[in-house]
Amino acid sequence: MADTFSPNGRPHLHGPTSKRWLPTLLAALWAICFASVFIWQSASVRSISIFRSNSRLYQSIPRLRKNVFNLTDFGAVDDGRTINTGAFERAVQAIKARGGGQLNVPSGTWLTAPFNLTSHLTLFLAEGAVILGIEDETLWPLLPALPSYGYGREEKGPRYGSLIHGQNLKDVVITGHNGTINGQGQYWWTKYKRRALNFTRPPLVHLMWSKDIIISNITLLDSPFWTFHPYDCKNITVQHVTIIAPLIGAPNTDGIDPDSCEDMLVENCYISVGDDGIAIKSGWDQYGIAYGRPSTNILIRDVTIRSMISAGISIGSEMSGGVSNITVENARIWESRRAIRIKTSPGRGAFIHNLTYRNLTFDNCRVGVIVKTDYNEHPDDDWDRKAFPVVSNISFVGVRGWGVRVPVRIHGSEHIPIRDVELKDFAVGLSYKKKHIFQCSFVEGRVIGEIFPKPCENLDMYSMDGTLIKKAATENVMVDIDYDI
Ligand SMILES: *[C@@H]1O[C@H](CO)[C@@H](O)[C@H](O)[C@H]1NC(C)=O
Ligand SMILES: *[C@@H]1O[C@H](CO)[C@@H](O)[C@H](O)[C@H]1NC(C)=O
Ligand SMILES: *[C@@H]1O[C@H](CO)[C@@H](O)[C@H](O)[C@H]1NC(C)=O
Ligand SMILES: *[C@@H]1O[C@H](CO)[C@@H](O)[C@H](O)[C@H]1NC(C)=O
Ligand SMILES: *[C@@H]1O[C@H](CO)[C@@H](O)[C@H](O)[C@H]1NC(C)=O
Ligand SMILES: *[C@@H]1O[C@H](CO)[C@@H](O)[C@H](O)[C@H]1NC(C)=O
Ligand SMILES: *[C@@H]1O[C@H](CO)[C@@H](O)[C@H](O)[C@H]1NC(C)=O
Ligand SMILES: *[C@@H]1O[C@H](CO)[C@@H](O)[C@H](O)[C@H]1NC(C)=O
Ligand SMILES: *[C@@H]1O[C@H](CO)[C@@H](O)[C@H](O)[C@H]1NC(C)=O
Ligand SMILES: *[C@@H]1O[C@H](CO)[C@@H](O)[C@H](O)[C@H]1NC(C)=O
């Protein structure tokens, strides 16, 4: 028996005397272990906070830049009542004055109004650190409408700036040991539903005209509006981020909204929110067309998303600067209304082009893939009636699913046909009934090999080796769109 405890067959205990003591020793060890577990359990039941306030249990914070500051050095108090906006602002100023640095936010609850970041900054949220957005909109500054939207997204005129904000920056990192930025969205959602707000609600984290950004290893909780909104930014990485908002009753709490952004990677994220998990955008109708900045070169991989009201991963509906070269791979979307959505409308102009979806799992979603071209929501009445977006080159390879009502609904129109769609290795099990499960109109493209469910007649059929088996019976005819199921 002793040998099983000895690595490489070399016993630690020798001789008959030691062997006699062994059972007693083991019994004693067992008793000590049992007692510790018992004490630990009752301690954590009685008072988790006392146990956790022992700071030695927290991971020590790595030094990631030359200059390192502690938020408490600037007078911050973590009682959840003191407003720490001044402390954050002084800390950011100190870092700016030194040309960059790291700001550590220790464990604790740090109430604050919005503040701005600076370049060459690492904001580090320790384990147990919570940056808490204040529930008082008079302390949230107003910003002008985004040029590519013309208006605040839900009210005309300006909009509230985000809790954590940055403009014209480079080299910004928000990271930590899974600390939290909490927007206390409930306050805003309630006011919004009561129509008690005069301006568009604020995002939680919003960076504009910035580059070289990393958001990692943090939790973003209960945003008032879109959670992370990078606008006209370049080179952005989002990894190991958890984004949470209630699945219902939390309007417009999209997880991540890459908006006119280029070179972006989103990976290893868990998102469960009250609107789209990820929504790639690029401006709204005539304003977006004039601004003319696409969202392009975006890779989304290894994500798990739940969106009961809207969709897991969306493109649009605001896409008037264009959207191209988007890859989504290894994504699991569960208990969602829609898994993959592409939405646009007359008036948007521009293009949605070169999309690759690979290795997706749809687990209990109402609709799997949906393309909608009549999302008629416009900023004002001056949109161009002839600005039809061009939608083409979209491929789906390796899609699995179960419990899905409508695996595919591609709804092109006479003016916005969907071109060059490809499906391969696609098998999505149904939850409901056997008709209206592959809905098509004004779509053209091909299916390679067998897929399930059986595709609509609008698509050409190829064998796995690329031989044409059957030409599409019909290309541009309304076949079978049924929004009722
Ligand atoms: C920051 O300051 C607080 C209070 O002085 C202290 O408890 C904490 O250990 C400090 N953290 C770091 C990373 O210096
Ligand atoms: C952040 O910067 C923007 C742009 O300079 C400014 O309009 C806004 O008022 C600033 N926000 C805060 C909280 O200082
Ligand atoms: C980070 O915190 C969130 C919210 O508490 C939790 O759901 C998630 O599992 C944590 N992530 C890690 C890697 O510990
Ligand atoms: C909204 O505008 C109305 C009328 O101008 C004003 O009375 C009210 O205080 C404003 N509310 C907020 C939340 O700003
Ligand atoms: C992108 O940003 C990261 C993080 O700041 C940086 O290390 C990298 O060099 C940047 N890439 C390019 C091509 O500028
Ligand atoms: C970020 O989280 C991932 C996954 O939990 C972990 O492997 C990695 O070490 C973390 N990075 C830091 C800097 O803590
Ligand atoms: C498309 O985006 C990927 C990132 O997902 C990038 O590596 C690639 O260079 C881009 N392709 C083109 C043609 O720009
Ligand atoms: C497909 O994606 C799942 C996550 O949804 C992942 O576990 C699996 O390894 C991926 N398969 C391949 C071949 O990359
Ligand atoms: C789509 O990809 C092709 C091949 O890389 C490229 O020639 C074309 O410009 C891309 N379209 C857009 C809109 O980026
Ligand atoms: C379609 O998109 C893929 C992926 O971006 C690209 O490699 C391919 O060249 C595109 N095809 C055309 C015809 O643009």
TrEMBL record:
Keywords recorded for this protein, A-Z: Glycosidase, Hydrolase, Membrane, Transmembrane, Transmembrane helix
Family: Belongs to the glycosyl hydrolase 28 family.
InterPro entries per record: GH28_Enzymes, Glyco_hydro_28, PbH1, Pectin_lyas_fold, Pectin_lyase_fold/virulence
Listed transmembrane segments: 21-40
Organism: Rhynchospora breviuscula
A GO term for molecular function: polygalacturonase activity
Protein name: Polygalacturonase
Annotated GO biological process: carbohydrate metabolic process
